[in-house]
Amino acid sequence: MRYPPVYFPKQMNVFIIECIMVLFMSCVTIRTNLCSPNTPSLKTLPLDGHFNFHEVHHAARDFGNRYQFLPVAVLHPKTVSDIATIVRHVWDLGPRSELTVAARGHGHSLQGQSQAHQGVVINMESLKVAQIQIHTGSSPYVDASGGELWINILRESLKYGLAPKSWTDYLHLTIGGTLSNAGISGQAFRHGPQISNVHQLEVVTGKGEVVNCSEEQNEDLFHSVLGGLGQFGIITRARISLEAAPARVKWIRVLYSDFTAFTQDQEHLMSAENTFDYIEGFVIINRTGLLNNWRSSFNSKDPVQASQFKSDGKTLFCLELAKYFNLDKTKIIDEVSNAMAHQQPVNFEILNDLVEFSCNLTEIENSLSQLSYIRSTLFVETASVLRQRLKYFYTNYKT
């Protein structure tokens, strides 16, 4: 007796094939990691931290999302010695083993630099060897682990009225990660990138040696590691220059539709005297309701015109500017009001602060009047340094 043929819908066939492929690749991954010739030797290494041979898929991705190289293991170090041990082990194995090592901070590399195909990825955020140490004085600085986040450096240094001279726009990145690249920031036109504001480094070299370096000690290694993309050593600790933190920040954001005008204004501001303290530009492509998103953190100078501005389908260029104030407008107003209420003369220092504050506001207005931005897109906000950076994060990375 013949049975009629059974036909599965095409979508069901595709679904079944996809499931089989996922199961197959998962089995291959597990088998590859567990059966790798390098796995037994890694398990014998004396470590304070530990290896993870199973949960490794997250280490095969980065911010660039262009490459996915699966490691054989992820090392979660507790000490600098752990990092030196694995690097020394790879060095001793020699090139025939094909085992490689890559340091991974917050995974914001673009070309797979923080990945290691069938190698070992070192999770630098696990390295918490010591607390952040702030040193005050005439030349303040901070000592911190290479796996520490910049946002934590800023929070801790602000407790002492200090802040890093140069920082990236996104602060949820590791110190070792940005110093291995350059650390371009909106203050770079004044202070240089982050790598120009480092006094000293602790580095694990390619041979697994732990070395301190600076401009006076092991100078070649110092300058090779800074901006060296991790090819000359792994940064495990850094001493970074600080400066007095401003009391308030006036944060300004404007848009351009013409690229030439955008770049000319940016160059003009960076070369002018009495200009802004932070200057940064970036491209925005086809962002729906852009100005409406800004309103949660910034105040529009022309709300009516801003509400009518359409960003959909457009390529726009954003210029972000900041002016630092080492005095608090609220404090000045309170002290002047208090003196007037008691019919007392205003303190001379307060008057000087008031004049300085007025001059700074005048400089801002004069600088803005010389720019060729779209007038309806001027947004302004005044806040503390930390609040301003957190607002930046939420308006740029949460919308």
Offer a few descriptive terms:
399 residues; single chain; 3 domains; globular; cytokinin dehydrogenase activity; FAD-linked_Oxase-like_C; Uridine Diphospho-n-acetylenolpyruvylglucosamine Reductase, domain 2; Uridine Diphospho-n-acetylenolpyruvylglucosamine Reductase, domain 3; 6-stranded antiparallel β-sheet; 5-stranded antiparallel β-sheet; Oxid_FAD_bind_N; FAD; alpha+beta
Structural summary, described in words:
By secondary structure, the protein is of the alpha+beta class. It is about 35% helix and about 20% strand. The protein contains 13 helices and 15 strands. It has helices at about 10-35, 40-45, 80-95, 150-160, 175-180, 190, 220-225, 260-270, 290-295, 305-310, 330-340, 350-370, 385-395, and strands at about 50, 75, 100-105, 120-125, 135, 140-145, 160-165, 200-205, 210-215, 235-245, 250-255, 280-285, 300, 315-325, 380-385. It is globular and about 75 Å long.
Question: In angstroms, what separates the terminal alpha carbons?
Answer: 64 Å
SSE succession: HHEEHEEEEHEHHEEHEEHEHEHEHHEH
Biggest sheet architecture: 6 strands, antiparallel
Strand content: 15-25%
Structural category is alpha+beta
User: How does the overall form come out from the CA principal axes?
Assistant: globular
State the helical fraction.
25-40%
Low-confidence runs: 22-32
| Tally of contiguous helical segments | 13
Gyration radius, rounded? 27 Å
Question: Average pLDDT, to the nearest integer?
Answer: 83
How many domains would you count in the coordinates? Answer: 3
The overall strand count is: 15
